Amino acid sequence: MSQNVNPKPSQDVTAAGNGTTTHPDRFVDPGLPEHKPRLADIDPKAAKRNERIVVLLFVLSILGTIGTVVAYFAVRPDGTTAGTRLSTVLLGVGMAVSLLGLGFGAVHWAKTLMSNHEHIEERHDSRSSDEVRTVVAQAFKDGYEDSGLPRRGVLKGAVVSALALFPLTIAVPLVSSVGGDWNVGKFRHTLWKTGTRLAYDPSGRPIKAADLTVGSVAHVIPDVDEEMRESHEWITEKSKAVVLLVRLNPQDLKADQSPEGETWSYDGIVAYSKICTHVGCPVALYEQQTHHLLCPCHQSTFDISDGAKVVFGPANRPLPQLPITVDDEGYLVAQDDFAEPIGPSYWERLK
To answer: Which intervals carry biased composition (Basic and acidic residues) (predicted)?
Structure first.
């Protein structure tokens, strides 16, 4: 704690004869309160006990780091929701234990073992004199010795090990990803292709146009074979291909054609990507009376009846539309993939 030292005498507050009050230019420096020693300052056993607690916290951080690295290699996402969830939880818990161990260890060390004496320093120019700089250097040295590091080898080893190992929780996943799949071109397309049936999410049951009434909303995924559903790529590919299907009165549609003049809907049924063009949240809140589709994250609002154009919010592009029709059996099928890449950003996109 730093305070200004006041070399000038103070003036008492006096009452003037005209009823006004004068105030002193300076106040008396009240000084520092009486220092109250902690239990660890006067009881060696308490100090040793606190040292063991700090060491334990740093060791816990070390174990958390090791656990994170082991979990990263031993429990990899297997393409299923359960597998991805388990991997994410283990990595999150490991990193949390590692970082919290460091934080709590440092705080407990500072509050129970480091010096807590108050110090007064005069304010001075930016560049101190050589004498003052020498005093400051000595103060740092004294503080280092007072922290207990020179005589607490186990504590010093624990904190150095914890600090040295924690970066592995971030570095190992980053380094191991080098040389991975950097083919960004695959984000241009999804699983949708000509003739792919639309299916309910998550059951996978194909959808007939006759199943939908005006105002109906369905969460849709591509109808794929069992081999794809069991593959590691399914979760990633599904997340890109999710669609919201809505049936409107055909006369309510204001825009329903591609730039080439082709019809992209069927009897008032339209399909749009669920991935918001702002930051990629799932757009799924539909208001039947206004035909507005709302993103719950940042309230971007799209008009389903008018090509999913943005009517409110931070998004600056319409939702990509999936062109659909029906096959010979009355099932809804895709005419093709989305006309443009889905999601909030793309490497070749200007907006």
So the answer is: 23-38
> Is there a contact between 94 and 61 (Cβ–Cβ < 8 Å)?
no
Q: SS3 for 90-120, per residue?
A: HHHHHHHHHHHHHHHHHHHHHHHCCCCCCCC
Per the CB < 8 A criterion, the answer to whether 285 and 296 are in contact is yes
Q: What is the CATH class of 186-334?
A: mainly beta
3-state SS, residue 134: helix
Q: Which of 268, 284, 272, 252 is nearest to 323 (CA)?
A: 272
Helix (H, G, I), strand (E, B) or coil at 243: strand
Of residues 32 and 23, the one with the higher pLDDT is: 32
pLDDT of residue 239 exceeding 60, the answer is: yes
What distance in Å separates the CA atoms of residue 325 and residue 266, rounded to the nearest whole number?
5
61 membership: H or E segment, kind and range: helix 44-74
pLDDT beyond 90 at 157: no
User: What amino acid occupies position 155?
Assistant: L
244 touches 297 (CB < 8 A): no
Range list for CATH 2.102.10.10 in the chain: 186-334
